Amino acid sequence: MAVHYGKRTVKVAEPSTLYEAWRLKQEGGAGAVYVAGGTLLRTQWENGAATAPSLIIGLDGVMEYRSIVLNANKGAIVIGALTSLEEIRRSPVVAAHVPILIKAVSAIAAPSIRRLATLGGNIASLSGDAVTALLVLDAELTLFRGGPGLEKVLLKDWLEGGECVRGSGALVLEVVIPIVQDIPAFSAIPASQGADDIGAGSDSANGMASAVQDEFRSFGFFEKLGRREAFTPSVVTVAAMGRLGEKGSFAKVKMTAGGGAALPHRLYEAERFLNGRRVGPSSLAELHTLIMEGCASAGDLFASTDYRKEVAANLLTARLWELLKG
Q1: Which fold has domain 2-58?
Q2: Which residues, by range, are in coiled-coil regions (predicted)?
Q3: What does pTM read for this prediction?
């Protein structure tokens, strides 16, 4: 079987097993490309943004990795890489346990595209909107590299490690997302942290700032800014998860940013600033600066690097302020 992209004729193979797909990739080398939904790749080939390969390795025949399973033993949701974005958007299991992912995939393209596009393809693109959400969810990837076993790697390490971790020809088979239980937790936050914002008291007996007992509950959100209202590539995507105390202190916060051609990434310095801190307007202003400094955005004809950084900082700090106000 063959298809045509411009003047180029591209052969299409349809393996039924992982090992056959892997063999075809090793034989075809850089000229062979794995394709599932293929929505992004075909668009790039048709408009000349990327050169069409000599061989398409269709993965539709490897059906065992098209599923969404709640694994109680692992305390996680396991999503097959060939699961479509629309199947994820409609999944009651995903909605109940990781609504951030529902928000992310719902913001991707039009419904007709989501019915074809797969989670594995969104991840393989490296800049897919779902990746920003999965990164903040501490997702883990199951990879196949042609050997007898499967490899587990955190999405964070897969992104940050570059080609030495991603490797050539590795197939993403599953995405494992830990389930965060929203169980109230108590912790002592030093009253001196954020005292300029909150107005914390001090211990009159020894002159030391007194610790404040705070009850924490989980929060999470995903935001996307596109070039128009809907069905548009992202300019900026952000996500955050963590725990917020009733007295305005944060704990276990993770924040991510992506969008455009930028590789989604964690905002480590901003996370360190926020965790264990009681927050008010002045510390949010400082957080805004740290987010801009840590945001590794890439500018293009539609939006400059500085604009993307500022938008990411605005989106994150605005949502955090909304949480604080209740």
Answers
A1: 3.30.43
A2: none
A3: 0.85
